[in-house]
C-alpha cells in the first residue's frame, strides 16, 4: 500500500531523515521504533504531507503522492494523528467527530438558508455515525462531555474515532501511548486491532512502549540516525544486536549476555 523510497529530509546541514526506504503492506499494523532523534516523526510528517522531502518518493497504491498536502491525502484515505491530541476543546466529544467529514451541506452559507431540511438530515446521519464510533471505542458515556475535559488517553481514542468518521485506508499513529495509563492504552490497542481485523485498516505506529509494539505490530521497522536500521517480526528485532546497541541500550545487551 505505502512504499517509501530513499526519503531524505534535510534541515540545512542536519539530515533528519537520510535515505529511509521501506514498505507498509495493506492490512498490516507496522511498528516504527527508534531512539529520540532517529527521524521517526519527521518521516511521518513527510509521508503525511506536513513536510516536503529533500528527495525521494512516497507511493500509495501505485500512485506517487510525494509532496501532496495533508488535505489532499485526507481525501485519498491517508490520515495522521499526533503525539499531542488536537481536539476542539469547547465542543463535545460527539461534535468533534461530526466535524470531521468534509463537504458537509451546512458549510455553505447559502445552503443554511435554502436547504435546511437537508442540513438537518445530514446532521442527524452524522450524529448517528458518531454514536456508532463512540460505541465501537467504548466511550459512549463521554458523548456530551467537552473534549477539553476528558483525559489524555480518551483524547487519543477520540483521534482514532476521527479516522473512523471518514473510513480511512491507512492511519499513521504518533505515540498513542504518550501520557496514557496502562488500562486506556490496552483499550486503544484493542480498538486498533479491531479496526485492522474488522474494517481492514492499515496502521503504522510510532511508539516507545515495546510491550505495546510487540503485542500489535508485525513487522517492526527500526530507525536510527535517519536511516532504517532493521525490520522484521518484533521478537527478531528484540534479539537484533544492532538494535539493542542503538535503541534498547547497552544495559539490556549486557543483561541478555548475563542470562545466557
UniProtKB/TrEMBL annotation:
GO CC term, one of those recorded: plasma membrane
Molecular-function annotations in GO: ATP binding; ATP hydrolysis activity
ABC transporter domain segment(s): 2-250
InterPro entries: AAA+_ATPase (IPR003593), ABC_AA/LPS_Transport (IPR051120), ABC_transporter-like_ATP-bd (IPR003439), ABC_transporter-like_CS (IPR017871), BCA_ABC_TP_C (IPR032823), P-loop_NTPase (IPR027417)
UniProt KW ATP-binding keyword: yes
Gene3D superfamilies: P-loop containing nucleotide triphosphate hydrolases
UniProtKB keywords: ATP-binding, Nucleotide-binding, Transport
Coiled-coil zones: none
Family note: Belongs to the ABC transporter superfamily.
PANTHER family: CONSERVED COMPONENT OF ABC TRANSPORTER FOR NATURAL AMINO ACIDS, CONSERVED COMPONENT OF ABC TRANSPORTER FOR NATURAL AMINO ACIDS-RELATED
Full protein name: ABC transporter ATP-binding protein
Species: Jiella flava
Amino acid at each position: 500500500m505505502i512504499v517509501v523510497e530513499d526519503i531524505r529530509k534535510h534541515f540545512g546541514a542536519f539530515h533528519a531523515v537520510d535515505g529511509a526506504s521501506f514498505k507498509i503492506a495493506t492490512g498490516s499494523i507496522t511498528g516504527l521504533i527508534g531512539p529520540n532523534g532517529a527521524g521517526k516523526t519527521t518521516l511521518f510528517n513527510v509521508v503525511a504531507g506536513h513536510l516536503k522531502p529533500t528527495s525521494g518518493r512516497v507511493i500509495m497504491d501505485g500512485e506517487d503522492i510525494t509532496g501532496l498536502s495533508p488535505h489532499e491525502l485526507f481525501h485519498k484515505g491517508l490520515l495522521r494523528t499526533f503525539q499531542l491530541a488536537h481536539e476542539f476543546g469547547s465542543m463535545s466529544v460527539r461534535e468533534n467527530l461530526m466535524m470531521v467529514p468534509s463537504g458537509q451541506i451546512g458549510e455553505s452559507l447559502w445552503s443554511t438558508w435554502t436547504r435546511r431540511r437537508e442540513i438537518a438530515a445530514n446532521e442527524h446521519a452524522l450524529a448517528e455515525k458518531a454514536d456508532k464510533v463512540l460505541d465501537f471505542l467504548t466511550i459512549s458515556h463521554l458523548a456530551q462531555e467537552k473534549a477539553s475535559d476528558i483525559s489524555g488517553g480518551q483524547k487519543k481514542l477520540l483521534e482514532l474515532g476521527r479516522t473512523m468518521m471518514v473510513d480511512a485506508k491507512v492511519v499513521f499513529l504518533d505515540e498513542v501511548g504518550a501520557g496514557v495509563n496502562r488500562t486506556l492504552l490496552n483499550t486503544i490497542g484493542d480498538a486498533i486491532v479491531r479496526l485492522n481485523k474488522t474494517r481492514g485498516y492499515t496502521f503504522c505506529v510510532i511508539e516507545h512502549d515495546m510491550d505495546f509494539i510487540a503485542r500489535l505490530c508485525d513487522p517492526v521497522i527500526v530507525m536510527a540516525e535517519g536511516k532504517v536500521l532493521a525490520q522484521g517480526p518484533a521478537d527478531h528485532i528484540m534479539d537484533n544486536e544492532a538494535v539493542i546497541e542503538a535503541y534498547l541500550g547497552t544495559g539490556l545487551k549486557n543483561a541478555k549476555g548475563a542470562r545466557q
